[in-house]
Amino acid sequence: MSEPSRTALxxxxxxxxxxxxxxxxxxxxxxxxxxxxxxxxxxxxxxxxDISHMGRIDFQGSDAASFLETVVTRRxxxxxxxxxxxxxxxxxxxxxxxxxxxxxxxxxxxxxxQLVVNASNRDKILRWLEDHKTNEDVTWTDQTLQTCMIAxxxxxxxxQVSPLLDQLDPGRLKYYTAMPTNVMGxxxxxxxxGYTGEDGMEITVANSLGxxxxxxxxxxxxxxxxxxSGLGARDTLRLEAAMxxxxxxxxxxxxxxxxxxxxxxxxxxxxxxxKAKLKDAKDRPSRHRIGLRILGKRPAREHYPVLNxxxxxxxxxxxxxxxxxQYPIAMASVEGPCPENGARVAVDVRGSQIEAVVTExxxxxxxxx
Length: 369
Description:
This protein is of the alpha+beta class. The chain has helices at 10-15, 35-44, 64-69, 122-131, 157-161, 210-222, 231-240, 275-281, and strands at 19-23, 26-31, 47-50, 55-60, 84-90, 96-104, 113-117, 139-142, 147-153, 178-183, 186-191, 200-206, 227-228, 287-294, 305-308, 311-321, 328-335, 344-349, 352-359.
């Protein structure tokens, strides 16, 4: 069995005693001191996440956008330069192979389109692209091992990023936009998306520059009671924000309409793999993704059965004790008619039926100013 890959920041994680695990073939920090502390720091100030394990695939060629459009469920050619779009890659049956972010740059740029994919699916997606390659003018390069990607998340994220950028106010970037820029005097990419429910930015630079960028951010974040955060806090944060995780809420056996992601499918003026099956599935999803507030103190974990009138209707896909809300929450996948918000169901927690209330998603929304 091969050793897990190391990011440009792994040496830092080791030096501060972070708890490291093998995650999707990468040696990644689960936590530094405590998940609760890192979660709250991100909600109130700023959290720094090493997300270099995420797959980054650069597309080149005059047909880069049109080729990618045949693979993903949303339009790419019509996407204006500088915009980022959430999309899905589906198989011929409409099952979800991955959820991805499409970064659209100017056609005159060396890299007009970039695709960011989940770490656990990178090899699968690279094979999928190769299997469906056409004779168009398009090539792609997997930049995952050559670059470092850092997510800066939280209400004070933008001010933390600003000093790193040359002649660019990151606050001018709108949500779900991206652009090439200089980071600490060297070329890099910056985007404004996130996976925590907070505002924030992602910085992508060469591996050689990654530790310098990280160290500056760590020093700056400490002054506002923020700092490095691991995958544990990333999971509790994304669950509060009801953001699906591949392998939990999303799988190849589910379509986008089974998980409430119909907005990420565009049928008009767009031919893509799985379109025919998804058209059939649009108005008759076989399952539904719902939110649950667990009544009691015991959190519901993945695969715990969800029951209605003693009948099993589905299972929990993600669950935790919410650090922000201070009560257990969960997302679940259920069959049949979707229970209405406010409906009472039960979760089988190791043989005991615990009452739960179907709750509108997301559980948490960041305050607006």
